[in-house]
Amino acid sequence: MYGVEASAPSANRNYDIICFGDEVPGVLTLVCAAREYYRQTNNYPRSLLLFRGNSKLGVGGHIVRGGLAYLERSSVPLVIRQEHKLDIFGDPPAIYKELLQRADVEKVALDPNKTDWVLREMLREVRADILSNAEIKSVVKSGQKILGIELTKDETYFAKHFIDCTVNGELAQAAGVKKLTIGLPDSELAVTLVFETQGLSVERLQNVEYQYLQRFTNPQDQEAQYFINIAAGNDPNYAEQLRRDLVDKKGYLKTMAVGKDYIDIRSRALSIAYHAFRGTKLDLKTSPGIFDKGNVALLSRVRMSWNALLFGVTANEAEILARAKAQPTRKMFDEILFVTKWFQSIGASEVKPAKELYIPHAGNITDVLAPLTGAKMLGGGVAANEALGTFGYDFDVRGGIDGLGERANNKGFCNLAFLTQPLFNIGIEHALLKYVPNLAVVSPCSGFEGYACCAGRIVEFNCGVGQGVGIAAGIALVQERELNEISNREVHNILKNTGKLSLIYGKTNEVAAAQLNEFEHSMTA
Question: How many CB atoms lie within 10 A of CB 469?
Fold first, then answer.
């Protein structure tokens, strides 16, 4: 039965396409590949979804087992939306729109349970096999070409083309592809342990935050000011910074923004209250973990998914966590105990941590056909006549990158105003390898350089890339070509001819692109 766990065979097994990892962009890449092959041949290819995690806990990587229900969406300036008559999130990739529709997403809240079911249905429809709890022992190659993946269970799975959607490019690394860190010695983005709260209503949460905001902005409230000092680690400058963050430019309290299926926490009032309760500084470097401004998905009026609890990691630690099935450490579970007590004190009946961590980034592979930099994003991305879609996102490094500010100052970059939000056209060449002709990496670990990984880690963007890579894999199978021989233009034409090409509206910011290009080169020098 397709779309469910396959029993491991005693002998080797042959496939046409294997996707290693089950992150959402990878699953959709496999689906798109199978659909394109079927469109051209009226037969489905032999395809396999192979991954480290346990499928009994769900299929869908950090969205499902990691519980990351709050989707980061494409950001499109109002003037562009009005010019092209676009919705608030622009015109997403067709495969991504299909996923959201099938999972009943209103705006940004993607229920992990529904996602698991929808992804299994999509895999079943294209007759793909699923095999989880898989650990790579070695990669079988002929020259640079991958022939198969040997598992630690002494089973080997052969295929013609391979997709790697792991956050650390695990299959690519096993095939000999080099990987770089984010650009500073052993620095990496923080990881998140997402959790759900039950029983705490939106109205109750709004009221709690409002009370804290009123108290923290009242200099006469000595207890509240004491709480701020605890969260600031008794640093008066940091305490003043926390106070300033509680109001907007006009002096109004920065209350949370509540949408149909989400809450955006705009101030650090709840963070201050938690860290005062916890007795720790609101600082990734010195605390076991921090409760940051939350991105909250409303799965119901009393069921909330929180992307807020961050833990600082080095590049090596991120790699180790990725290879350990993204399992939270003891330190992280200890922090969740405090989170649980605090949320229960403000009205939650239950706090449930996700089964896996959300690891937003764990390095980037090298030697791709065309590395994608932040400067190229600001330059508008690939040409419109070969683009596969358009995506916009801030150069956001949540939790910060240790050492980045110091390095920038040392290089003479005191003003980073050129880090403006890009709106760029999508291609696939940063996901295709130069020297491993039948492998694509569709993940935050693709061939991003400099600031590009900030936008490159977002699921919606990688789903757009995955749609293109999937179609490319279908073409390569039918025409018996290498995956890295398929061009953006060929995929663009198929999307256009099948009515699935998203509107193209990338914008070029030449001045900012030139400045960021200089900055990115100086940071690695």
Answer: 32
Number of domains in the chain: 1
User: How many other β-carbons are positioned within 10 Å of the β-carbon of residue 287?
Assistant: 20
**pLDDT tens readout for residues 183-240:** 555 778 899 999 999 999 999 999 999 999 999 999 999 999 999 999 999 999 999 9
Calpha distance 164→154 (Å, rounded): 20
On the question of pLDDT at 394 being above 80, the answer is yes
Separation in Å, CA 249 to CA 244, 253, 366, 488: 9, 10, 43, 44
Instruction: Assign 413 a pLDDT band (cuts: 50, 70, 90).
Output: low
Confidence of residue 1 (pLDDT cuts 50, 70, 90): very low
Does any domain span residue 176?
A: no
In a domain, 56, yes or no: no
318 domain-assigned: yes
What is the C-alpha radius of gyration for the chain, rounded to an integer number of angstroms?
23
The residue behind tokens 């809450």 is 263
Alpha-carbon torsion angle 180, 185, 186, 191, nearest 10: -90
17: part of which helix (H) or strand (E)?
A: strand 17-20
Q: Is 222 helix (H, G, I), strand (E, B) or coil?
A: helix
- Strands 195-198 and 303-311, sheet pairing: antiparallel
* pTM, to two decimals: 0.94
The candidate with the shortest Cα–Cα distance to 119, out of 59, 169, 73, 175, is 59
Q: Does 227 map to a domain?
A: yes
Domain with 283 in it: 191-353
Select from 267, 490, 272 the least CA-distant residue to 388. Answer: 490
By the 8 A CB rule, do 281 and 272 touch? no
Q: Report yes or no: 356 and 60 within 8 Å, Cβ to Cβ.
A: no
Three-state SS across 290-338?
A: EEEEEEEEEEECCEEEEEEEEECCCHHHHHHHHHCCCCCCHHHHHHHHH
